Amino acid sequence: CVTLDVQAACRDPTVTQELLKEGFHRDLLVKVELGEEAGGCAVAAQMRLPPGIYVDPYELATLQQHNLTKAVLFPDVIDVEAPEYLARDLLLLLFLEPDARCSRCFRAAVPVHARYHRPAEGTEEALVVLESPEVLLCCCHSQLSAECWEPAEVDAPCSSDNTGPCQWHSTKHRPAYEESMLRVPVGLREHNSLVCALTLLTTGLCSGLILAAACKYGHF
C-alpha cells in the first residue's frame, strides 16, 4: 500500500519531442510538463544522440552567444564531416526555458543535422531513432521529494553560463515515452555501377576540357 501511495503521489513529467523542418538540417523541439511546481529550479533534458545525427558545436556556440539556445555537448569536439558509420554517440544536455502559457511547462529547441549513411539495398532511406530525453532538475533553494526524485550522475553545471558543479536530480518513475524517428535519404546499392561509370565519364570529360583549354590558351 505504501508503494502504491508513493507512486500515486509522484506525477511523472510529460515529455514530447518534435523534429521540425525537412531534409538533413532540422530543429529538435523538446517540451516538458512537470508533475509538480519547480520554482527556482533549473530544468534540463538529457538526450543521447545516435551516430546518424549530430549537433554542430560551432553553430551551438553562435546560438549561445546570442542567447538563443543553452546547452552542453559531450564531447565538445565533433567531426561534422564524418559519415554515420564512422561517427559515435553524443550526449546533449539541453537547458529548458519556462513556457509563459503554463506554470509547469518548459521548452527549448536546438538545430540537429543528419549524417550521410551507407548505400542501402532495396530502400531509399535509413531510420535514425531518437530516444526520449531524461528530465533533470537542479534546485538550489528548494527541496525535491525524495520519493519522486533521486540524485543523477550528471557532470554539468546548472546552466550553460555557470561553471560551478551542480547536483542534478532525475525522476525515479520514468514512463516509456515514444521515440522519434528521422528518415534520411540514402543511395541504392543497385546503382553503384551506374554511379561509378557516370562519375568516371564526367571526370574524364571535365579533365579533357581543362587540358584542351590549357593547351589552347596557356603559355608554356
Low-confidence stretches: 1-8
Q: Give a count of the beta strands, DSSP E runs of length 2 or more.
A: 13
Counted by DSSP, the helix tally is: 3
Number of structural domains: 2
Q: Structural class of the secondary structure composition?
A: alpha+beta
Helical content stands at 10-25%
What's the N-to-C terminus distance? 94 Å
Description of the molecule:
Keywords: Endoplasmic reticulum, Glycoprotein, GPI-anchor biosynthesis, Membrane, Transmembrane, Transmembrane helix. It comes from Pycnonotus jocosus. One of its GO terms (cellular component) is endoplasmic reticulum membrane. Belongs to the PIGX family. By secondary structure, this protein is an alpha+beta fold. It has helices at residues 2-9, 57-65, 192-217, and strands at residues 14-20, 25-33, 41-49, 53-54, 71-74, 90-95, 97-98, 105-114, 125-130, 134-139, 149-151, 169-171, 180-185. It has 2 domains: 14-186, no CATH class; 188-219. The chain has a 6-stranded antiparallel β-sheet with strand order 5-6-3-10-12-11, with helices on one face. Strands 1, 2, 4, 7 and 8 form a 5-stranded antiparallel β-sheet that branches. A two-stranded antiparallel ribbon has the order 9-13. β7 (97-98) and β8 (105-114) form a beta hairpin. The longest helix has 26 residues, at 192-217.
